[in-house]
Amino acid sequence: MIKRIKHSLEYLLDKSSRGKTSSAEENLLNDFAFSEYQNSKWDMDLMGNPEEVSQNIYDEIQLRIGKKKSFNPYLKYMAAASILFLLGLGFFLRPNVLNQKQITFKTSSTPKSIQLNDGSKIYLAANSSFQYPEKFEGDQRTVSLLKGNAFFEVAKDKKHPFIIHSGEIQTRVVGTSFHIQLSKLNCKVIVVTGKVNVSGKGQSVDLIPNQEALFESQKLTKQQADKAFLVNWYNEDVTLDQTTLKQVITILQYKYGVSFQYNNEHVLATPLTVFIKKDATLENVLEQINYITNLKFRVYGEIVKVD
């Protein structure tokens, strides 16, 4: 009986994380959480202060979804109580879930890359932040893009799906390569090779190469990707031949984690050819554009002003 309940919960929680539960299934999960909240018992000696523990859980949820919201106070206790129940079922008894060491990898003014213990490679843009476990264990390989942009080359492993949390969406793959671009306004997933599932807020789309998912204003849509993004320009030299300044700026924004400000939008239509070396600094690229166009660029931290 316990095993059947455990498997049912695993099934429903996995569906909910991918935004594929029905209203009835989602209500069942909500009712379960509330029931456990009402009936939960807390051992102060073993578990510590329930207020502090539940607040930590609540804060982690906030970090996962990437924004602050006002919730009813009992919701954080529901989360804590539900975890107690799942512990009783053995659902979270795997050491990798409770005690797995999490590492935060941050970049400053230049992109950097990292290889995870499963062989996957992550190319992180400048001014970005990525969190991953020291070692993958269990049924899934779960990581988080906390800020900025990244290119993922995921090692293939059909038995252990690779899951990336970024803002309010989740990207699920087995082995493929793709961009994730996370900003305050939206999140994009752009597929270069393989197949990818993107879900969030009860919505889900499947992507193949040359397609992208855009999550914006609580809506998830699928569309064709810009050809300029169908390479790993974090780790490859790129030539943008006879393109527009707007296209070049778009690449620079994602690669270097900056935003551009300009008084005259007409300059965006300026045609040019630019060579961006994989390890070039932002200043090097801007000097090249300045030489071609005579435009002036002033860098203020994560903001570039165009005159």
From TrEMBL:
The keyword Transmembrane helix applies. One of its GO terms (molecular function) is sigma factor antagonist activity. The chain crosses the membrane at residues 74-93. Residues 239-304 form the Protein FecR C-terminal domain. PANTHER family: PERIPLASMIC SIGNAL SENSOR AND SIGMA FACTOR ACTIVATOR FECR-RELATED (PTHR30273), PROTEIN FECR (PTHR30273:SF2). It comes from the Bacteria. Pfam families: FecR, FecR_C. Coiled coil: none annotated. Residues 112-197 form the FecR protein domain. Keywords: Membrane, Transmembrane, Transmembrane helix. This is FecR family protein. The keyword Transmembrane applies.
